[in-house]
Each structure stands twice: as structure tokens, then as C-alpha cells.
Amino acid sequence: MHDHAPAAGGIRSASSRRLLAISLSLTATVMVVQVVGAILTGSLALLADAAHMFTDASALVIALIAATVAARPADDRRTFGYQRAEVFGALINALILIALAAWVAVEGIGRLVNPGEIEVAGGLMLVVAVVGLFANAVSMWLLSRAQRTSINVRGAYLEVMGDLIGSAAVIVAAIVILVTGWMPADAIASLFIAAMIIPRAITLLREVFSVLAESAPKGTAVSDIRTHLLGYAGVVGVHDVHVWQLTRGAPVFTAHVSVEPQLLADGRSTQLLSDMQACLADHFDVEHSTFQIEPAEQSDCAPHHA
After folding, report:
1. DSSP tag of 268
2. Are the folds of 14-212 and 222-298 the same?
3. Which of 80, 81, 170, 232 has the smallest set of CB atoms within 10 Å of its CB?
4. Would you state the pLDDT for residue 65?
């Protein structure tokens, strides 16, 4: 018996795309404000926070573009369509983030070594940082409900939370500068934010390499899928299992399924195929699955695991 939980809403759902688009608008607007504020105030921390927000804005742009590109029909040359576009975009994004974080780190260390060379306008810096904090809080509120049911929105929610922490760090630095006049506070805040960017960029790179290496998607338990398939009446074996993903949230599954000869004789293979594909789509969020159904006594392949 198969009781399947509802599939989580993904980036392809209209409501998720709308929320992500609103969050993107807020993030991009504040990012521009922070860049302008960094230029006017001389604050490296504001510029670092803008780079931090760039991580979210670019990730959202990639996800939304991928949702559009993925909708383009496959053709004889690109039989899986254009979903890999997101992977290459993510690769470029990760490399840009690492370069930005490295530059901020070098610049921040330079300001710590020579703290008296640059004056930071703490008042304007504080105002811009508060605007960023407020925008991130609004984005978190918008995404708070949807993130409980969508792994994609959940990721965006956590990214915005990171931005909130970054804005808070800039606010603390601005207050320190206003109260004490200690300029190195700006550099310390920028180094803190750069330290937050690097792990996220590395995680993104690891995800890209995992997809390009055609590894099983993180969180996909092949053994659980095999157990579900073996639970169908007439199924006696599942082998030659392969699971990979075209891009984030687009897993692909193939397997050979050995069945009792009577199931084929009764003409129940079509229904079984439909049930197994529905199982993977509803319970494991695998929309693209391919099965080769074969009679058990003709299957001379010993079951082995992917």
C-alpha cells in the first residue's frame, strides 16, 4: 500500500515564483541602494553587504530564468530541453562570489592595517543598513509561509536570513563608528560578511560539480525508492537503478523492473508503469522516470545498486 505525502511546491509553481519575484525585487533594490551608499559613505561593510545580497539576487535570478528556460520544449538535439542552463549560471555565480569575497577580505585587511586612511560616514551608513534590515525582514515575512512547503522557497528564505544578519552587522559597525569614531569597525564588519559569503559560494560550487558528475541528488534515498517499487504486487526485483539530476530540483530516474510473468500475461504492465511513475512523482518529487519492465525468469542480471 502506498500512501504518498503531497509533493512539495517547487520553483515551477506560480505562487512560489511570484513570492520569489517580489523578494528578488526587494533584494535587488536594496543591493543598489547599498552600493550607492557604500560609494557615498566610504563603507566597505556596506559594499560587502551588497555583495552578500548579490548572492541572493543572483540565485533568485538563476532560479527564475531556469524556470522559464526549462519550459522551452526539447528538440532532437537537446533531448532534455534547456534545464542545464541553471547549472552553468550557478557556476558563473559561484566564481563571481568567491572573487568578490576575496576582494572584500583583502580590502578589509588593508583597512585594518591602515585604519586612518579612510573616513566612513557613520550616519548615512546606519540609515542604509537599517533600510537593508527592514527589506530583508519584509522578504522573510513574505516567504515565511511558503518556505514550509517548498524546498526552493526554503532556500531563498535561509538566504534572506543570512542577509538580515549581514545588515545587522553593518548596523552595529555604524553605531560603533558614530559613538566612538573607531573606523576599523567597518573593516571588521566587512570581513565578517565576506566570511559568510565564502561557505555559500563553495556549497554552490559543490552542488554544480555534483550535478555535472551526475551524482544522485542530495536527499534522494535510492534504497527507499527501491523499497517502494518492490511493494507493488507482482514486482520481484529492481536493478540497474540510476538517479541523477539535470539541474536543481529536476531529478531523473531509470531502472529495470523484474515482474512475475503472470502480470505481463494479464496485461497489467501498463497500469504498473503508470503507478510507479506516479509514485516517484508524488512521493519522491521525481517527474521524469523511465522503467524497463521485464519478466523475472528472463532477467539474468543479478540485482545491483546504483
Report:
1. -
2. no
3. 80
4. 66
The listed range with the strongest mean pLDDT (174-183, 203-212, 219-228) is 174-183
- Edge-to-edge strands, sheet with 235-245: 235-245, 251-259, 288-295
Strand 288-295 vs strand 235-245: parallel, antiparallel, or unpaired?
unpaired
Using CB atoms within 10 Å of the CB of residue 297, give its burial: 0 to 12 exposed, 13 to 18 middle, 19+ buried: exposed
The count of other CB atoms within 10 Å of the CB of residue 196 is 19
The DSSP output letter for 215 is: P
Q: Name residue, grid cell 528556460.
A: 69
- In this structure, are residues 26 and 304 in contact, taking their beta carbons and an 8 Å threshold? no
Q: C-alpha grid cell for residue 4?
A: 504518498
Sequence letter at residue 276: M
What's the confidence (pLDDT) of residue 256? 92
Q: Would you give the DSSP letter of residue 266? A: T
Structural fold of domain 222-298: Alpha-Beta Plaits (3.30.70)
> Would the pLDDT of 2 be above 50?
no
Identify the architecture of domain 14-212 in CATH: Up-down Bundle (1.20)
User: Any residues with CB less than 8 A from the CB of 280 and at least 6 apart, and which?
Assistant: 225, 253, 286, 287, 289
How far apart, in Å, are the Cα atoms of 88 and each of 83, 92, 93, 150, 251? 10, 6, 9, 23, 17
Report which residue type is found at 90.
A
Element (H, E) at 257: strand 251-259
Task: Locate the domains of the chain by residue range.
Answer: 14-212, 222-298
